[in-house]
Design goal:
heterodimer, A: 11 strands, B: six-stranded mixed sheet, four-stranded antiparallel sheet
Chain lengths: 113, 116
């Protein structure tokens, strides 16, 4: 069974640009969550999508957005990049069943210069 | 609101000795508790979880954790540490409220260093 796939693995962008990250969940998983990991703030929840609808949202500015497609693949977008957006972005997929663990991808390392 | 505290930034232990990584949590309802491990430049790997039932939970690679409701703790343990256990460990909590989604709240992480 294939795991969670995130692309690309590494990105370098310039301040002010926008970026789109992609996540393909495990087959059959309908929930996709995104997290930002930085040395200073640790792991912070961005948002969760379930069946193409945003179900939960963390405390991030509107520059951070996401969507989920009918095949459960998800994308997140960050517009007007700031230096502080440099981070490891992790995607997690979960089945619909309560109490199950989330499975994480390898992450996308975003560097904003 | 839910929260997790991992009071130790780093834990050092000699190979072959038992290890404990501490975690306390706060959640309004019943908790779902998880431990994950992260190796450098990698994602998070699931180790074990507590959902309900026995307070002692066994997981991958010989790790176990004990759920203590009165102390709101979920400490990770292993009877005999290996150098290969050296990594960053995260405790996470999710509120078990139905329909609450899969949002996980993580602790700040504990760096485990196992030395020969």
């Amino acid at each position: 069974k294939a795991g969670v796939t995130q692309t690309p693995r590494y990105l370098i962008k310039t301040r002010g640009q926008q970026v789109t990250l992609s996540c393909s969940p495990i087959s059959g998983h309908r929930s996709v969550s995104w997290y930002q990991q930085t040395p200073g703030q640790g792991l912070q929840f961005l948002f969760e999508y379930f069946s193409e609808t945003q179900r939960n949202k963390g405390n991030f500015p509107g520059r951070f957005s996401g969507r989920q497609f009918s095949n459960s693949r998800s994308e997140m977008n960050v517009s007007t990049l700031e230096l502080g957006d440099s981070a490891l972005y992790l995607c997690a997929s979960s089945p619909a069943t309560l109490g199950t663990e989330a499975f994480f991808g390898q992450g996308t390392r975003l560097t904003v210069v | 609101a839910q929260s997790v505290a991992q009071p130790e930034d780093q834990v050092n232990v000699a190979e072959g000795n038992p290890l404990t990584v501490k975690c306390t949590y706060s959640v309004s309802g019943n908790p779902y508790l998880f431990w994950y491990v992260q190796y450098p430049n990698r994602g998070l790997q699931f180790l074990l979880k507590y959902i309900t039932g026995d307070n002692l939970v066994k997981g991958s690679y010989g790790f176990e954790a004990e759920f203590n409701k009165s102390q709101t703790s979920f400490h990770l343990k292993k009877p005999s540490a290996l150098v290969s256990d050296s990594a960053l460990y995260f405790c996470a909590v999710r509120d078990a409220v139905t329909g609450g989604g899969n949002k996980l709240t993580f602790g700040t992480g504990t760096q485990l260093k196992v030395e020969l």
